[in-house]
């Protein structure tokens, strides 16, 4: 994409530094390069998906300095200096090259929270930040957490279940958290 | 769905930003980008220069002062919504902000950007207008203050000059003996509203309505404020006749149009329903605040509820 021969010769470019999933990158980009495209095309991180490109679907959601943001509505150049977390950064280090699925990812597997998977990266990043801010959401709060993301396949019920499951999985990882909600519907 | 080629500047001082804007006739300010970048992506806007104001110092404040809530140009919707002092000073602001898009959009979108974007379907311009707030703007020619009622001149058109930067919006504090309410109907939670109403009701010393006004979004080509003298003297619970008279007044002023999301008739129906709902809630809010403030024993708790 960045090597195709459109009329780019005259277009000004800018140095952009991004720390993506802990790895620093320096790229030179035109101002109009969206962060979503910079991640996918310039850095080769194709986990971030692009659905609508106007902020509505949420598929492109990444964490920008920790907070969820639509990467299709951020110019890469204006994110200069930022720390970005993409879906590729949600796995946990377990000594193997591919790592281990993080709690939100594992919850999506456990709850059948995805079908085609197109929307999934945006849900995973959004929920990761959501559970960091609210580690033990009520059912309504779990629904609200994913209200800004669209999914054309699942009907959302299993995604909401996955939010609650992820809260439990992450809770078990916390020192004081193993008495969270019972995983398989025990007494409340 | 990609922006057209554009030059980019990220000034670190206001003077530099203002000079860049003054020197480039079709430059555009880039704040949170949550309205501008979609327009760039769809090529509905194609400026030659973007002046990114995100690194300007001293503009990200949310300050609750006795006269009202001062919101700097770089304060994100999420920061304004989370500010407890701002909520106490003017509760209508947070009530309405919780309806602005979704949390992810609110993390980047600025409240001031939303106001100067001047979308008639947006919550913040209508709230600033119903409260009689104002915006402070700067250009190479100096600073000036624009009253909310003079701010929105047409659909997506503000009265800012192309080279002016809005520095701050001021939402006046809630008056003693006043109450507020915000209500809207949208297709999906977080979407732009089909109709929204912000109400401010003031009571006199005897608990009757001294003044009432509603701000409307998405049912006129600009955010509209309607004064409702029909309510003056009324007492709660507000009767059907009173709120009907109020919505008749509003519908006489509003030029309600239909679109793909809802017909004009449906939207007029929403004006009636939401005007009644907002006025009753604002009246009750005012009554509760007034009784709490004077620490009088809560009246009429006995009997039938
Ligand atoms: C999916 C989605 C849903 C949304 N839903 C809603 C909703 O329900 N209600 C709602 O109100 N909004 C909604 N928004 C819009 C959102 O509130 C935007 O954040 C806001 O309208 C613009 O603020 P911004 O900081 O992002 O401005 P930008 O997008 O950066 O700028 C918008 C315009 O204002 C100008 N501008 C911005 N700041 C200044 C300044 N300080 N001085 C001079 N000019 C300036 C820019 O030049 C541009 O013309 C939604 C957006 C998206 C993407
Ligand atoms: S691609 Fe960014 S929100 Fe849809
Ligand atoms: S799993 Fe297919 S869009 Fe969500």
Q: Care to give the gist of this entry?
A:
The complex is a heterodimer of chains A (188) and B (305). With 188 residues, chain A is an alpha+beta fold.
Report on this model:
The complex is a heterodimer of chains A (188) and B (305). Chain A is of the alpha+beta class and 188 residues long. Helix content of chain A is 29%, strand content 14%. Chain A contains five helices and five strands; from the N terminus they run E-E-H-E-E-E-H-H-H-H. Chain A is globular and about 50 Å long. Chain A starts with 12 loop residues before the first strand and ends in a 15-residue tail after the last helix. In chain B, strand 13 and strand 14 form a beta hairpin. In chain B, helix 7 crosses helix 8 and helix 9 packs across helix 10. The C terminus of chain B is likely disordered. The interface between A and B is medium-sized, with 30 and 30 residues. The structure holds flavin-adenine dinucleotide and FE2/S2 (inorganic) cluster (2 copies). Flavin-adenine dinucleotide binds next to strand 2, helix 2, helix 7, helix 8 and strand 10 of chain B.
Hey, roughly how much beta strand do the residues of chain B contain?
A: 25-35%
* CATH topology call of the largest domain in chain B: Uridine Diphospho-n-acetylenolpyruvylglucosamine Reductase, domain 3
Spatial order of the strands forming the largest sheet of chain A: 2-1-5-3-4
Largest interface: A-B, 30 and 30 residues
Topology:
The complex is a heterodimer of chains A (188) and B (305).
Chain A: E1 13-20, E2 23-30, H1 35-42, E3 61-64, E4 67-70, E5 83-85, H2 103-111, H3 120-133, H4 139-145, H5 157-173
Parallel strand pairs in A: 1-5
Antiparallel strand pairs in A: 1-2, 3-4, 3-5
Helix pairs in contact in A: 2-5, 4-5
Chain B: E1 7-9, H1 14-23, E2 27-30, H2 36-41, E3 49-52, E4 62-65, E5 68-72, H3 77-82, H4 84-89, H5 91-97, H6 103-106, H7 111-117, H8 123-130, E6 134-139, E7 142-147, E8 152-154, E9 157-158, E10 165-172, E11 178-186, E12 193-203, E13 209-217, E14 224-227, H9 240-253, H10 264-294
Parallel strand pairs in B: 1-3, 2-3
Antiparallel strand pairs in B: 4-5, 5-10, 6-7, 6-10, 8-9, 11-12, 12-13, 13-14
Helix pairs in contact in B: 7-8, 9-10
The complex binds flavin-adenine dinucleotide (FAD) and FE2/S2 (inorganic) cluster (2 copies).
